[in-house]
Amino acid sequence: MSDGEKPLKVAVLGCGSVGSQVVRLLEEQADDLGARIGAPLELVGVAVRRIDAPREVEVPAGLLTTDAMGLATRDDVDLVIEVIGGIEPARSLILAALKHGASVVTANKALLAEDGATLYAAADKAAGGEGRDLYYEAAVAGAIPILRPLRESLAGDRVTRVLGIVNGTTNFILDKMDTSGAGFTEALEEAQELGYAEADPTADVEGFDAAAKAAILASLAFHTRVTAADVYREGISDVTAADVASAREMGSVVKLLAIAELNDGAVSVRVHPAMIPRSHPLASVREAYNAVFVESEAAGQLMFYGPGAGGSPTASAVLGDLVTVARHRLAGTRGAGESSYADREVLPMGETLTRYAVAIDVDDRAGVLAAVATAFAEHGVSIKTVRQEGRGEDAQLVVVSHQATDAQLDATVEALRGMDIVRAVSSVMRVEGESDEHG
Ligand SMILES: NC(=O)c1ccc[n+]([C@@H]2O[C@H](COP(=O)([O-])OP(=O)(O)OC[C@H]3O[C@@H](n4cnc5c(N)ncnc54)[C@H](OP(=O)(O)O)[C@@H]3O)[C@@H](O)[C@H]2O)c1
């Protein structure tokens, strides 16, 4: 970089957990960033809601402003980083920044999953049709590089399935339940005490956060527009200690998975708890870590692992994007825009092929096994394994099915619940991560 190189001007919108770390790294690594880009970066403003709030970073004097729109649309700003979060005003700010010719980096999964298409269209139209970059690596799985691998590294392959542990709070809770035998409420309380769960944990434990990420992963993996509303979602608040124990007996562990896969050419995208075998690479993802497991035709199986949240890890992904879009600005080019050419159908959950493990408390008498098997057969579901446990009052059957549609499996469980010989269906859990040649 020559001393006289004109700086690229950067505006940061938001200075909370992520924004404060972005500002810190921009200052601390200014020389390296400038050298890597080929021009220095100059931070020209940081937009916040409250000027006087305590901050984790000392923002250089005069840079804080409450006028986010004024900052995002300044004529001299080249690069805008949006780390406010939520739908509004983030969407209006990003659209205005693009319209004014800035390139945009954002960590905003909620907005991308709800209305990514509008943002992409604005990026295409920006700068009089020249187009500008819209990058958002930090929106899924924090520091873990996963969107660029899907968008670029795997652009020559055919992805068939993405399985992700993309929410640290729920992974922490399920890991606690698995290792200590705790129930959901107890494990949630511990997560809250340790700062892994919010005081209102709904967005995490009910799977909303993971569903937004699943939509983004599915869109990129299958070149199809998928929004959060397309994602079938079940959280973990109904997962019981008995479910976790039942999985353990089967050599499996319960994880909240974001799943995007091809079912006969259509896309199935969903978030729900599922059992995976302990031998599966995702089973080794402990505590609040995240991982995304990708299967593709030519590459085979790939796993991306690391910290999925936190100010500093997330800021690492934001700055990686910033370097890329800054390089593009200098070269007068831009990266790939939206790729939705495949336009695949998104399957309703009922039509999605899946597998269930069902633990059934039954009367301990002759003919029970046959009656249970008949209930499965009547709904077109074939059985992969049956294990019988206990005797008398404690008699239990654990049935693992082959693949069937979720509707068939659901109807089977309903039928089991109505049978005289069935005292209770004590656990129902979907099964993932095993091959199922039969289905
Ligand atoms: N935290 C993580 O670990 C993580 C991980 C991955 C992705 N993300 C994403 O990163 C984004 C930011 O998350 P965060 O955790 O950093 O949020 P945060 O801590 O709540 O910070 C939000 C910031 O935005 C500012 N803000 C809010 N409304 C504003 C407005 N109308 N105008 C100007 N500034 C406004 C706030 O100002 P004040 O400080 O004055 O209140 C605050 O500085 C979100 O999209 C989130 O999903 C976060």
Provide structural commentary.
- It is elongated and about 85 Å long.
- It contains 14 helices and 18 strands.
- The strands form 3 sheets. Strands 7, 8, 9, 10, 11, 12, 14, 15, 16 and 18 form a 10-stranded mixed beta sheet that branches. Strands 3-2-1-4-5-6 form a 6-stranded parallel beta sheet, sandwiched between helices.
- Strand 15 and strand 16 form a beta hairpin.
- The chain is α/β, with parallel strands linked by helices.
- The mean pLDDT is 96.
- The chain folds into 3 domains: 8-142 and 312-331, Rossmann fold, CATH 3.40.50.720; 147-306, Dihydrodipicolinate Reductase, domain 2 (2-Layer Sandwich), CATH 3.30.360; 350-431, ACT domain (Alpha-Beta Plaits, 2-Layer Sandwich), CATH 3.30.70.260.
- The structure holds NADP nicotinamide-adenine-dinucleotide phosphate.
- Name every ligand kind in the structure: NADP nicotinamide-adenine-dinucleotide phosphate
Q: Radius of gyration from the CA trace? A: 24 Å
CATH architecture of the largest domain: 2-Layer Sandwich
Helix segment tally: 14
Class of secondary structure makeup:
alpha/beta
CATH fold label of the largest domain: Dihydrodipicolinate Reductase, domain 2
Helix content: 25-40%
Unreliable residue stretches: none
The top level CATH class name of the largest domain? Alpha Beta
Question: Number of folding domains?
Answer: 3
* Whole-number mean pLDDT: 96
Number of strands: 18
Distance between the termini: 59 Å
Largest sheet: 10 strands, mixed
- The fraction of residues assigned to DSSP E strands is 15-25%
- Anisotropy-based shape: elongated
Going by CATH, what is the homologous superfamily of the largest domain?
Dihydrodipicolinate Reductase, domain 2
